[in-house]
Amino acid sequence: MAPDETTATAHTDGTPQARPTIVLVGHGMVGQRFLEALAERGVTGRARVVVLCEEPRAAYDRVQLTSYFSGRTPDDLALGEPGFTARHGIELHLGDPAESVDRGARTVTSRAGLTFRYDTLVLATGSYPFVPPVHGKDAEGCFVYRTIEDLLAIEDYAKTAKTGAVVGGGLLGLEAAGALKGLGLTTHVVEFAPRLMPVQVDEGGGAALRRTVEDMGVEVHTGVGTQEIEVGDTGAVAGMTLSDGTSLAADLVVFSAGVRPRDQLARDCGLDVGERGGIAVDERCRTSDPAVFAIGECALAADGRVYGLVAPGYEMAETAADAICGEEASFTGADTSTKLKLLGVDVASFGDAHGTADGCLDVVYSDSRSGVYKKLVVGSDGALLGGVLVGDADAYGMLRPLTGSVPPLAPEQLVLPAGVGAPAALGPSALPDEAVICSCHNVTKGTIRGAVTEHHCTGVPEVKKCTTAGTGCGSCVKVLTQLVNDELEAGGVVVDKGLCGCFAHTRAELYEIVRVRRLTSYAQVLDEHGREEARGGDGCEICKPAIGSVIASLAPSIGADGYVLDGEQAALQDTNDHFLANLQRNGSYSVVPRVPGGEITPEKLIVIGEVARDFGLYTKITGGQRIDLFGAGVDQLPQIWARLVEAGFESGHAYGKALRTVKSCVGQTWCRYGVQDSVRMAIDLELRYRGLRSPHKLKSAVSGCARECAEARGKDFGVIATSNGWNLYVGGNGGATPRHADLLAQDLDDEQLIRLIDRFLMFYIRTADRLERTSTWLERIEGGLDHVRDVVVEDSLGICDELERLMADHVAGYRDEWAATLEDPDRLRRFVSFVNAPGTPDPSVRFVPERDQVKPDLDVLAGPVLPIRTLEGSNA
Amino acid sequence: MTLAVETTPAPPEPAAAPQAARDGLCTARVEIRLDGGWHPVCDVAQLTPGRGVAVLLPDGRQAAVFLDRTGGVYAIGNQDPFTGAWVLSRGLLGRVGAAGRPFVASPLLKQRFDLTTGSCLDDDTVSVPAYSVRTR
User: Fold this and answer.
1) Whether the predicted pLDDT of A638 surpasses 70
2) Residues of B in contact with A523 (CB under 8 A)
3) Which of A210, A481, A662, A849 has the smallest C-beta neighbourhood within 10 Å, fewest atoms?
4) Where are the annotated segments for Disordered (chain B) (predicted)?
């Protein structure tokens, strides 16, 4: 096809200063990495970069594709910093694949007819799923497993299907089987080879894997091929016939029988390709045309192999970027080690997993009861050559970097489980500096140590940023953390985890102390558990509210008064808690009555309006579906609340580190899409957890269907209705570092949902640091979401009864703080501006008009503008 | 009435009279030294250990009066110099150890001020007035 220059976009031929143009075909993981490599080398500033991408969305994490079914959205899977392409002036054409290349004219033409002239062309077209040429393979209900669009289609079709069959028992096939199982289908896996994952594991590993997979209810058929897809009268899949003649009923089939390099574009323009496919490249990733490069799964590397893993693809991306910059780099082959979790089973293989080297020996540990199989391949000189780990791959992070060297322990000690004659676990100190810790990004132990010793990183997050280690598949994070901590310790950095200058304990430790010793007095906690030098003092602004909150959280269980304004408790509270209102910049307060679930009667709305009008307050609707009344003087608070309490309002706890709101959409009652009554559930939850003191504020929302209008996934705990019940998400966050909540459990009935939230919240309150939101807590604690799920769903620590009891105590002990305050003249006495002039309002709290309401008159304050002292957390 | 920021720190006289306060906690009155004379501002019984109250001074200025755990009473200017708001009395009192110096952390942006000298512990160049206090 002749390229049509007249349809070219901004490019003008013949401009003398025209920047060189690089055209990238394909925007997958490797393509994105290539663009980042260009940006890092400053090429994006010097050259025009055009990207043609077939998929309708920009690069995403295909390795984590299956996590879509455990609650991650396509947005969560997106790769690269938001705005990356725009910031570097990269022209990204989505949904418009390259159709042809004219190497003579050096042009590429897209499906939409755009033609781009290139100086350098880079092919990163990836691979396509291989579908065996069997009859019926194109019937309705047949799918492949490669893109987000494939998954969306499978998810949709599975709604009406009962039984699914996966053709292929390799890595992706097992992921697909897990996905079908999760979608509620009876699931079969058909593998032509005699065992599952034939490429990665040996016979013993395959057997261990098979047992565990079958225990999960997946039917495994090995050593048989797919003869035919049976098609029903409607043209849809009805079943499949296997090569041994048996017939499987199935109404959904996923082909996952391997991938093939996508080299058609290269073939069409006459580039060299391998006999079995793959665009032939040299060590610098150059094809037979020096102006054209090929990287990733579409390339046949200089060592004659096509690599289907992301790490070698990334290395090729870097190599090509170096070559384009005129720098020396070469890609001559890569490690194909892998570690993954399939259907909840750890599987890892590394190095010479099949023992192909001359004279090598195996060391095998196998325990079929627990489904653990470990094999190490050792050379005749004692060097570790490779291995297979199934069911327990914890040692992978240490063993892979040791590959090629003689390990410091005997091989049998490396495969024995802890406690069965195995000595203390092998630490990363045993590794040489050149050992690669992060194989995705090729980061060595030496580089990581350097990040601490030379670049002064003081924690894992900083080291990740500095070295990129641990930011790929994440399998090395455990070893990375140990290494960083060892290095910090060696450098004499003492990480003081104490709450503040008064306490060497963390908040979680103090929670346990208060709970077990039933301490109800801050002074006693300080004098008996504070740092030696802080005892007998008054504490500080950090530990006083933190311990006040712990005592308040535990109040009903330890026999303390939960009311926060009495006795010694009064002196612990930040000003917002002290006055049960939110301090604003001019010394006035704002007032937020609780509006459970955001549902409010016209009568109550009118009362809020009348109160605001009568006291001259500024009103604004909040993000949590309630109404904030600003500009109240401290003396006015009791009068305002007398009116609100009379009308049936309660404190909204906008001032506390406590449950704020449970937002909701209107749900099934009104909305044509709703599948559950989200408003009722939101009200139930808000009334249950109101007043619960926690390490930080807590927000929640309930959505009545998957359209998620209540934005529940941006909340600490969010509930989304399904046709079968409720899905519970945890750890979401808006604010400066937004985070989507993770799915904790699905299809719960009302009772299960509430029990699980009870446990989750109490476990968080018990173990979080001061001012630590659920999102950071979830990312900090060891084991992360999986650990929390083990504890609150599986009750792995045996504490769920206690967590539920603590919550029941809270629910039974709840009283409205404002009603209680108004009843007691002693408690009301503090609501004066001046203790020596009750009734005199503070003259510095004044207002001026703006947009028909009031705003603070800051001129009255006339203070110089000075910087904010850095102290984590805020009253927001 | 003046609402300007008071920039001159009071002379560092010994500020608190803890012994007197301990002796007569129930009936004692708090007095602040102003322009050479002692002015009563409130009863010790109106104070909560660890917290402050605001008092209106005869010339329209405001002071923040605090009581610590051992009965020590302190007074500084009530205006937070970082925001201009008259709110220091609503901050939390701190004192690390029995021999530590008492301070208040502003409830707005959390800067700390020494209750005996008025100087800001987070910025040498900033201070608030500190008043001599006695209880009797």
Assistant:
1) yes
2) 69
3) A849
4) 1-20
Q: B119: domain range?
A: 18-135
Q: Do B10 and B131 contact (CB within 8 A), yes or no? A: yes
Pairwise CB contact (< 8 Å): B56 & A844 = no
Q: What pLDDT does A111 receive? A: 94
Instruction: Please give the CATH architecture assigned to the domain spanning A142-257.
Output: 3-Layer(bba) Sandwich (3.50)
CA distances to A92, A208, A345, A583, A818 from A171, in Å: 31, 15, 12, 57, 59
* CB-CB contact of A444 with A433 (8 Å): yes
Q: List CB contacts (< 8 A) between A541 and chain B.
A: 91-92, 94, 105, 110, 112
- Which CATH superfamily is A5-128+261-324 part of? FAD/NAD(P)-binding domain (3.50.50.60)
User: How close B12 comes to chain A (CA, Å)?
Assistant: 22
**Chain A positions in Cβ-Cβ contact with residue B42 (cut-off 8 Å):** 835-836
ipTM of the complex: 0.81
Digit-coded pLDDT (tens) for A138-163? 999 999 999 999 999 999 999 999 99
Name the pairing type of β-strands A698-703 and A717-722.
parallel
Which tens digit of pLDDT belongs to each residue from A360-414? 888 888 887 777 888 888 888 888 888 888 887 777 777 877 777 777 777 777 7
Q: In this complex, which of A585, A833, A842 lies closest to B108 when CB atoms are compared?
A: A585
Q: Where are the beta strands (DSSP E) in A405-449?
A: 436-438, 443-444
CATH number at residue B69: 2.102.10.10
Name the closest residue on chain A to residue B40, using Cα atoms: A836
In chain A, where the domains are located: 5-128+261-324, 142-257, 507-573, 574-651+817-876, 658-815
